[in-house]
Amino acid sequence: MSRILIAEDDVNIASFIQKGLHSAGFVTTHVADGGTALLLARGGGFDLVILDIGLPVMDGFAVLRQLRTEGLRLPVIVLTARDAVEDTVAGLEGGANDYVSKPFRFAELLARIRVRLQEAVPADAGLHLEHGDLLLDLRTRRAQCGERVVDLTAREFGLLEMFLRHPDQVLTREQILKHVWGYDFNPASNVVDVYVRTLRKKVGDSRIETVYGMGYRLR
Ligand code: CA
Predict the structure, then answer these.
(1) Which residues surround ligand 1, an ion (CB under 5 A)?
(2) What pTM value is reported for the model?
């Protein structure tokens, strides 16, 4: 679920945007001045900012400039008055990802939000999995446990990847066999238990718990 920060001092426009975004399944936070917008955007936790230009305390241009100066790259869609579009485009200097001129239809804003959220997926997304302080790099096939880097065999890697894709879920021996060994292994085989044991030695005993009579779970 994406979280959107709305910085807009016009209460009618703000509530129009909020209502629309809620029914589209987004989580929103609304602020009415530029200073608060900057603070919250800086604090992280948002996937996109809808930023009005004419804001009290600090205008939208200043907020955007500050965010980009600090290296924050989250997508920003600027709201601007129709008669100020040219000034707005000039003022953005590439810092905003998009703008929408007022008045706008909600569908138009929503379409732009969806495009920007898709673009914002970082280039290296999906190249590692993590859970707590355990991190698995899918390219180098190395695990990192806190500060420690651990080399894994192919089976250990497959096993840890499966646990990390299903954290806190009980995985049965049969599921693990099928997924990691890729063929119907004799269910009476203890190969899973053997590999869980070696994996525990590498990443720490307490991370993978035995669920009696069922299987294993990554905590
Ligand atoms: Ca305004």
Answers:
(1) 9, 52, 54
(2) 0.56
| Residue 10 CA to ligand 1 centre (angstroms) | 6
Which pLDDT score, from 0 to 100, does residue 15 have?
Answer: 95
Quick check: helix, strand or coil at residue 52? strand
Q: 61-90 pLDDT, tens per residue?
A: 899 989 888 888 889 999 988 777 777 777
Which among 93, 64, 84, 58 has a CA at the least distance from the CA of 76? 64
How close is the Cα of 86 to the center of ligand 1, in Å?
17
DSSP letter for each residue of 145-211: ETTEEEE--HHHHHHHHHHHHSTT-EEEHHHHIIIII-S---TT--HHHHHHHHHHHHH-GGGEEEE
The pLDDT of residue 154: 83
User: What separation in Å is there between the alpha carbon of 54 and the centre of ligand 1?
Assistant: 4
Tell me the residue type at 6. Answer: I
**Using an 8 Å Cβ cutoff, are 57 and 37 in contact?**
no
